[in-house]
C-alpha cells in the first residue's frame, strides 16, 4: 500500500497514528527506529521518507527531518521537529490515547 493511501486511511481512523518523516541521509535516521519501535503496538506508525514522498512531506509542510506528527480522525494532535525521547513520546501517546 502506498504512503498516501496509508495516511488517507489513518485520517479516517479512530486510532492514533504517528507519522515519522525522515531521510536516509539524515544523521538522526539511526536513532529514530529504536525509539518509535516500542510504540508500534499501541498506535499505528507510518514512516515517510521525505526524499521518496515529497508530495506527502509538502502536504504536512515538513521542511526538516526528523519530524513527527500525531494524528487521529484527520486532526493533528501533536507535532515535533528534531530529536524526540522515548519518555516524551510515551507521555504524548498516553495523553491522547482513549
Written account of the structure:
The chain has 98 residues and is of the alpha+beta class. It has one domain: Glutaredoxin (3-Layer(aba) Sandwich). The chain is built from four helices and four strands, in the order H-E-H-E-H-E-E-H. It has helices spanning 3-11, 29-37, 54-59, 86-96, and strands at residues 17-22, 44-49, 67-72, 75-81. It has a four-stranded mixed beta sheet with strand order 2-1-3-4, with helices on both faces. The longest helix has 11 residues, at 86-96. The radius of gyration is 12 Å and the shape is globular. The termini are far apart.
Sum this structure up briefly:
36% of the residues lie in helices and 26% in strands. The protein is of the alpha+beta class and 98 residues long. It has one domain (3-52, 61-85): Glutaredoxin (3-Layer(aba) Sandwich), CATH 3.40.30.10.
Rg estimate, integer Å: 12 Å
- Span of the ends, CA to CA: 27 Å
What's the architecture in CATH terms?
3-Layer(aba) Sandwich
Would you state the CATH class? Alpha Beta
- What does the main sheet amount to? 4 strands, mixed
Structural class computed from helices and strand pairing: alpha+beta
Provide the succession of SSEs. Answer: HEHEHEEH
Q: What average pLDDT do the residues reach?
A: 88
Q: Which strand-content bin applies to the residues?
A: 25-35%
**What strand line-up does the widest sheet have?**
2-1-3-4
Task: Write down the CATH topology.
Answer: Glutaredoxin
Structurally, how many domains make up the residues?
A: 1
Helical fraction = 25-40%
**What is the strand tally?**
4
Shape: globular
